[in-house]
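task queued by scheduler; priority normal; single chain, no ligands, no partner chains; default sampling; output format set to structure tokens
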Amino acid sequence: MFTCLFGVYKMSVKNSTAIARSHNTELAEIFHRMAACYRYLGPEHRFRAMAYEGAVKTISNLREDISVYATDVSSLDNLKGIGESIAEKILEYLDTGKIKTYEKLKKEVPQDLLELMDINGFGPATIKILHESLQVNNREDLIASIELGRIFKLKGFGEKRVENMKRGLKLFKEFHTRMLLSDALELGNEILLEVQGLTGVQKAMLAGSLRRMKETIGDIDIIAIAERKNWKKIITRLLQSEKVGRILASGDTKASFLVKNSTVQVDIRLVQEFEFGAALLYFTGSKEHNIHLRLMAKEKGWKLNEYGVFDVKTDKWIAGHKEEDIYKLLDLEFIEPELREDRGEIELALKNKLPKLIESRAICGDMQMHSMWSDGAESIETIARFIEKEFPQYEYIVITDHSPSERLARGLNPQDFIKQFDEIDEVNKKLKKDFIKKGVEVDILANGDLDLPDELLSQFDWVTASIHSLFNKDNTGRLIKACEHPFVHCIGHPSGRLIGKREAYTVDWVKLLQKAADTNTAIEINAQPNRLDLKDDLVKKAIELKVTITISTDAHDLNQFKFMQLGVAVARRGGCTRKNILNTNPWKSIEAFKENKHRLMSK
């Protein structure tokens, strides 16, 4: 076995796609709200709602601004999911900045109610009842109706249903007060580049929970080195940035502001070079990790703070130039930021037993992605050639389109998969290598069966089994039965959660992970930003139980392959080494993994 060198996703790709997407973002939001309006108006408008949501997906996945494609209606018709009527509205928007149909819908449907339909447990029929019966016009009205008990007067709104609504509201609130890691990374790096470009700034780094790569981020912290004489000028220039909205604090050493048109707070601190390590350590956190380190320093007669390590008796500065110096002074191995949660990492560092965490460059292939055969945006050949160019060290990719039960995702029937096999063979011939593997994301049905026959499943190179229904049930049995299936190689997005929108379904994780280990079934870390599933604490438990793990992007368009770094971050937070991750190996090792499962299940 060997480690593949993995090129970090090229920033040039991001810059060529994200800079010109202001039209796409705004238009996708308008169409999303139009779809919500039609859903609210009733089931007779469901096809219109579906059409607009399809257009949202297409526009969001475009790598160029929509105006590039909009020479006329027929040119837009060539885009998947864009029909003549929607194409006309796109041209209208590009010409006038508005869409008359949307302006009309805004008068028919209370707009503050639309956000409620994005909350788990709130469908359009429910929202309409609440609006018409209790005059609920927004989230605040809904909360008041629940707290005052008025909602219980409505038929069908019992304790259990209202409790589910409360949980949905809580998730919604958390989601709107924190950023997904992917969004925070993009914004944080943009601001970091601006800070690094300021005259007088010698070095700058991200800190806080963003540096620890937590799944959601509250605010963005940056630590920068500069000579003290330049601090005031740097702060002044910084606050003149176009990204700066409301200024919260401005001093000689620190600036805090809200990013323009958002509630995202950015805190930037200037330090001298000899203080940088201590400041970076302190402001990276976590709070619990820092407290543990301070107690260790105190036992040695030292004081540890954001300025350095000091002798308590003499107040002499001892260390602080680099984080490594502080850890070494405390007789600790250097602890990677992702591990700094006071979950046993300090005890391991004292014994020199910290895991050597997996790095992105170790990934040799992506084990789950979707093409236009189901709900992906691109053809198999387009995907393969993009990966070849942008991730040249990948040895393989696995196309895993949906099975028949996923109707909304245009799941394939057995005959479709046979045709897809032929296409994969043809593309591999063009590529002159066995690069694309034949996979499937097969649905686990309510009783634990799979929705494809064994005869077909046995022909796939890789089978990922996932749950896409009955999220309010205890799904331990379904997942265990899938693990026991001889042709299931991996369980996809195992908890089913959507961060800020849907809670994980109930699972006895010890039972499931033990079964995965016993049957040689891999468990996936799904790197989609709103999934990051398996969670880091469960990744740690999986390692303890000797479960094999895969990291997959579950990409549905070309822009999503960069999410691999998010999956790697989850693995690092869970303490994964390269050996814990199956797809750090060449395909022959994955074949050996499959053969081992077959032997186990044949006994």
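post-processing summary
- The chain has 25 helices and 17 strands.
- Residues 1-21 have pLDDT under 50 and may be disordered.
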